[in-house]
Design brief:
By secondary structure, this protein is α/β, with parallel strands linked by helices. 37% of the residues lie in helices and 13% in strands. It has four helices and five strands, in the order ααβββαβαβ. α4 links the parallel β4 and β5. It is globular and about 50 Å long. The two termini are 21 Å apart.
Length: 150
């Protein structure tokens, strides 16, 4: 199946994909704020520039889109139809880069909390996020496998 957009239209659509201050990032920040947990944005100077940083707790939070970072959920497992070779390689590079950054942060004494976009579809997401941050330990938050697919 070919793309429903012309190459110029597809390019315009892709340019509008945000890299920061996304809906999932705002959801994470709202949950932390509601729990009274302070944080900073951006993580400049840290490997991978985490989306949310709690410097005093040494916690770095990455908010990953399931497709863009190659999660193993139904949304992340989708295969692009147009320019598939490029996108598959790109997502593989994203996954490798994410693993390296998490390893470097852990080596430097940071707890890395990775929040997958699909995790936000669960009713207990806010509670799980706050518990992970308060525990101060590395955690990966995704949708439980018993949940219905997208």
């Amino acid at each position: 199946m070919s793309d429903v957009f012309t190459p110029e239209q597809r390019s315009a659509v892709m340019r509008r994909v945000k890299g920061k201050d996304t809906g999932p990032e705002r959801r994470v920040r709202a949950a932390l704020r509601a729990a009274g947990i302070g944080y900073r944005l951006g993580g400049q100077g840290l490997p991978g520039r985490p989306d949310v940083v709690m410097k005093g707790r040494r916690i770095a939070v990455f908010v990953h889109g399931c497709f863009w970072h190659g999660h193993d959920c139904p949304r992340g497992a989708r295969q692009p139809k147009a320019n598939a070779d490029y996108w598959i390689a790109k997502i593989d590079r994203n996954r490798a880069r994410d693993a390296v950054n998490a390893t470097r942060l852990a080596r430097d004494g940071w707890a890395v909390v990775t929040v997958w976009e699909c995790a936000m579809k669960t009713t207990d997401f806010d509670d799980r996020l706050v518990a992970a941050v308060k525990a101060g330990q590395a955690a990966t938050m995704s949708r439980p496998s018993s949940s219905a697919p997208d």
